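Milestone M4 deliverable, item 7.
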Amino acid sequence: MLTVTAALIRRGDKILIARRRPGLRNAGRWEFPGGKPEAGETPEMAIVREIREELGITTTVTAYIGESIASNDDKEIRLLVFELIWEGGELIPVDHDRIDWVSPEALTGYDLLEPDIPIAQGLMTGEDTYPS
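Output delivered:
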């Protein structure tokens, strides 16, 4: 099972989601941005690094939100989601061609990656637990 991290970044009542750019696996699909931990990294360290690399902003982890387990491209993925605060920097996507700030209710209108769907469902219903 592949473990990846994802960021939940809020601006008011909106949540940041990102669309994977052409040329990448799952191009055109939406996700909570993040990535894989490197050797020796905790998931918290990995999500802060990934957001800096992928979006150009500095952040701090404020909470562990939950996890989902789902299959994507015939791989089983364990997605660990953390809430982050945007502390600085200009939002400049690298792996994404579009960024949207959306309300939790609007998430159903986006083609989210499979591991992100249970997290989105939890956000839409206001539940503290996320189904796998």
